[in-house]
Design brief:
By secondary structure, this protein is α/β, with parallel strands linked by helices. It has twelve helices and 14 strands. The longest helix has 18 residues.
Length: 386
């Protein structure tokens, strides 16, 4: 039975209809805030097959509003997975070679335990009774998932933005469980500016009358207006000034002259409104509060006396990617952690990709990024899977 599981663990998941596990079955999950989750589900997807040696597994960590559906077709939205241009058969992260795992973070709203889940102690929705979580808590849950899958050491952990934060935690605190860490468009800690943008989003949600102190699930209405504004604000930070000007400029949306009222005049206004309206159909407002707070709390240098001590004697391979027009997580942030890794004699590669696509460039078809990432994985494959 174990041999079959090693050869095609994905087939067994299909037979068992297994895409969610309770990682707290054998041991409760203790959170950084001091509270405990006695029941903690992690929803996940797998792509490709695990080899006999269980050495070809790649964990992909999603960003703030992502989910476990990184490839193929999202069964809920019926749209391509959020990284389907990079992950799949014959693609850079080739599912003919690699066993790809992607899980929804705890605190999320796509099957993993979060504020919209049922509290087993009350049999009611958690809402704001759900404990505050951290990026470190998210990774603790992922570690248990990987243990459940029987994988002793991952081939690589890859993630962009908040996913990159998770990848860094794997590299710093679980280095014996992973061969390579690939953080993309991220930082070792959230900056004051980023915290400020998140707080605007949270305040927009909480100011919506339908939020009802987080208990909106009891009503037919949700705080969609507040969540929409939060998304609009955040989406601006994912783009670049040059990219916005190039795509929209001051172009008008519906006419050749101003309306002289407060309806939409400019194309950029229409675009942001569309982003906000489409977002509320796929994301939960309380999850947005919890996950943004987790990002704000993130500071890897707070562990083990600072970054230099954290990466001492680290044997993992690191490959960092940044983008020239990313002002949310600028290259200067990544260079600080690279300096600490270099001082620890770690194996580090770093590439800055020239683009005008801003922070979201890591999600788009950036040929140079894809080419270099593919080259790094190929080189790693020769050393690890040979």
């Amino acid at each position: 039975m174990m041999r079959n599981k090693s050869r095609n663990i994905k087939t067994i998941f299909k037979i068992m209809n297994l895409n969610k596990i309770d990682i707290s079955q054998n041991k409760e999950l203790k959170l950084d805030c001091g509270e405990i989750l006695s029941q903690c589900n992690v929803a996940f997807m797998t792509y490709g097959n695990l080899n006999k040696e269980k050495s070809n597994a790649i964990l992909i960590c999603h960003a703030l509003t992502g989910d476990q559906y990184c490839a193929e077709i999202n069964p809920i939205s019926k749209k391509p997975g959020w990284w389907s241009n990079l992950v799949g058969s014959g693609k850079v992260i080739d599912t003919k070679k690699y066993f790809v795992i992607c899980s929804n973070v705890i605190g999320g709203c796509n099957g993993s335990t979060g504020p919209s889940s049922i509290n087993p102690e009350t049999n009611k929705v958690y809402n704001l009774d759900f404990p505050v979580i951290t990026i470190f808590d998210m990774v603790k849950a992922q570690v248990r998932l990987i243990d459940f899958l029987g994988i002793e050491k991952l081939f690589a952990v890859i993630g962009g933005s908040m996913g990159g934060m998770q990848a860094l935690v794997w590299g710093a605190l679980y280095q014996n469980k992973v061969n390579a860490i690939i953080p993309i468009a991220t930082s070792y800690r959230h900056s004051a500016q980023n915290i400020a943008f998140h707080e605007i989003g949270r305040q927009a949600i909480m100011a919506d009358p339908n939020w009802q102190m987080g208990k909106y699930n009891q009503l037919k209405k949700k705080p969609n207006r507040g969540l929409s504004v939060a998304r609009m604000v955040a989406h601006i930070t994912y783009l670049s000034e040059f990219g916005l000007q190039k795509k929209f400029g001051r172009n008008l949306q519906f006419s050749k002259s101003f309306s002289y009222d407060f309806n939409i005049d400019f194309q950029i206004e229409s675009y942001l409104k569309h982003q906000g309206n489409s977002f509320v159909n796929r994301f939960d407002a309380n999850s947005y509060l919890y996950i943004t707070k987790a990002m704000d709390y993130f500071d890897l240098s707070s562990k083990k006396g600072g970054l230099s001590n954290l990466f001492k004697d680290n044997k993992s391979n690191f490959c960092f990617f940044t983008f020239t027009s990313d002002w949310l997580f600028p290259t200067s942030e990544t260079k600080r952690i690279i300096k600490s890794l270099n001082s620890s004699n770690a194996n580090v590669s770093f590439v800055e990709i020239k683009t005008d696509k801003g922070h979201d460039a890591f999600l788009l078809k950036e040929p140079e990024f894809h080419k270099i990432l593919g080259g790094f994985l190929d080189g790693l494959e020769k050393n690890v899977l040979a």
